[in-house]
Write a structure and sequence with these properties.
single chain, 489 residues, alpha+beta, Uridine Diphospho-n-acetylenolpyruvylglucosamine Reductase, domain 2, Uridine Diphospho-n-acetylenolpyruvylglucosamine Reductase, domain 3, Alpha-Beta Plaits, 7-stranded antiparallel beta sheet, binds flavin-adenine dinucleotide
């Protein structure tokens, strides 16, 4: 909460002087748009939203917000699913959507410099005719921004073979808590010094505001082979994923959908996918034509050996696009069969997929809830969608409890509480189950090296509010607390 009392109109005027009248929003009706991200169950109205258009604007906005002691929440498209862009009461949201220009395309060096508000898919669209693309492809790629992808280290269907955002960002420009500009990384490969870029990518908007990003561009593979296989249950589908990887094949993508997810997709899209199966895999291999064909043969043989009921290959590009449309529409399709659902995001070793999905089905049955699974199976990155109806007393609480238990199952099998959606405001309570106090302290120290006053996204990620310089043990007030610059809670 801001400690400096400023009237709303004065606040608006002061930020409007930097970003322009219409880009400094204090109207309650307009602020509603920014109250939540994709985790719509959490809502907080910010004091003000500002929409800068340049790095210089962002520097000035940060300096003013710091002078007013306002917590700062950066925001891209607001599609995050862990409450990372959830405003903080009395705070400012810095929306980067207007900073959506592609600044430079350098095809000989396979680089592109973009502003953070550029939509993920627009990067690939810009260079598609030249035979290049940007590999990380979150299912939300037609709306989410590169800045949000950097903050979340986003993944996607094709990250199994090509890597996550962290593997495709070579430099960023960051506005610090002092409102200064820091360039980290380099457009060239392997610059000397500590790899601070890997600290920034995945930092969930807690170390500064990213205002430029240099991304790596890839050549489109010569050939892609896609196939869709159905199975009696998730056991055989899970076994297929392990068998394919054990054969030494690295598919471009292996996505799994269970029975409920298939039913929802078919109902929403009218696709002719069979309904009398327990699971389906949508798989893709790519590379030079000979390699793609050879690995496609091996992979389909694995699927059949593991008990596939049917293996379909698309007749043409249109049919392939339809298969992917089915997969990408899964979240929306599930939204049509349930008033609400909670998207969980955990990771398990891929060899445990069948086992873990059975445990999830059991715990869902115990809570009297349905769970649909649709996920990046090759990475073992589960997305159980826990269906509930908030109008039924106690059902939302049971869904939340089931979501938490799912994470515990992931941890039990050596996995993680998040694969790609981040910790944000949603999973802070589980951080202590995954990390020791010493781990958390080390992480907090890294964050504090960038943002000692916790100006950016305070109250996110860490299970208990931590000040910079805090040590576990008997409570001793931090100097910043004594001077009234920071508080607990
Ligand atoms: C239907 C659907 C499907 C999805 N599928 C996937 C998927 O396959 N893979 C995946 O990884 N995610 C997926 N997501 C989650 C989400 O789209 C990603 O996390 C995405 O990267 C968020 O981008 P955004 O622009 O919406 O960021 P926001 O939601 O606005 O912000 C996300 C975080 O980034 C921070 N942030 C945003 N911009 C900046 C910046 N410029 N500088 C510093 N911090 C910043 C925010 O403070 C917040 O912590 C999906 C979401 C939906 C709704």
């Amino acid at each position: 909460m801001s400690r400096i009392s400023v009237r709303d109109t004065d606040l608006q005027e002061r930020f409007a002087a930097i970003v322009g009248e219409k880009n400094a929003i204090v109207e309650p009706a307009q602020l509603r748009t920014y109250e939540a991200d994709g985790l719509a169950a959490f809502r907080v109205r910010p004091k003000i939203v500002v929409l800068p258009s340049s790095t210089e604007d962002v520097c000035a906005v940060v300096r003013l917000a710091r002078a007013l002691e306002m917590p700062i929440v950066p925001r891209g498209a607001g599609t995050g699913l862990s409450g990372g862009a959830l405003p903080i009461e009395g705070g400012i949201v810095v929306g980067l959507a207007r900073m959506n220009r592609i600044l430079d395309v350098d095809l000989p060096n396979q680089r592109m410099r973009v502003q953070p508000g550029v939509v993920n898919l627009d990067v690939s669209k810009r260079i598609a005719t030249m035979g290049y693309y940007y590999a990380p492809d979150p299912s939300s790629q037609s709306v989410c921004t590169i800045g949000g992808n950097v903050a979340e280290n986003s993944g996607g269907a094709h990250c199994l073979k090509y890597g996550f955002t962290v593997h495709h960002v070579t430099a960023v420009r960051l506005v610090t808590d002092e409102g200064e500009v820091m360039d980290i990384g380099s457009p060239i490969a392997d610059p000397p010094g500590y790899d601070l870029l890997s600290v920034i990518v995945g930092s969930e908007g807690m170390v500064g505001i990213v205002t430029e990003v240099v991304v790596r561009l890839l050549r489109r593979p010569q050939a892609t082979r896609t196939f869709f296989a159905t199975f009696p249950s998730t056991d055989e589908a899970g076994a297929t994923v392990s068998a394919i990887v054990a054969r030494g094949i690295v598919p471009a993508a292996i996505e799994m959908m269970d029975k409920l997810a298939i039913e929802a997709i078919v109902a929403a899209t009218g696709l002719d996918w069979p309904l009398d199966v327990g699971a389906a895999l949508l798989m893709e291999v790519d590379g030079p034509v000979a390699e793609a064909e050879h690995t496609a043969e091996l992979a389909t043989a694995c699927a059949r050996a593991c008990g596939a009921v049917e293996v379909r290959t698309p007749r043409d590009e249109k049919e392939r696009a339809l298969m992917w449309m089915g997969r990408r529409s899964a979240f929306a399709a599930v939204g049509r069969i349930s008033p609400q659902y909670y998207v969980q995001d955990g990771v398990i070793p891929r060899s445990r997929i069948g086992l873990v999905l059975r445990e999830i089905a059991l715990l869902a049955a115990r809570e009297g809830l349905r769970v649909a699974n649709v996920f990046h199976a090759g990475d073992g990155n589960l997305h159980p969608l826990v269906l509930y109806d908030a109008r039924v007393p106690g059902e939302e609480q049971r869904a939340e409890r089931a979501g938490g238990e799912i994470l515990r199952v992931c941890l039990k099998y050596g996995g993680s509480i998040t694969g790609e959606h981040g910790v944000g405001a949603d999973k802070t309570a589980y951080m202590g189950e995954m990390f020791t106090e010493a781990d958390l302290t080390a992480m907090n120290d890294v964050r504090c090296a960038f943002d000692p006053y916790r100006a950016f996204n305070p109250s996110k990620v860490f299970p208990t509010p931590r000040l910079c310089g805090d040590r576990p043990g008997t409570y001793v007030p931090h100097p910043a607390e004594l001077s009234g610059h920071a508080g607990r809670g």
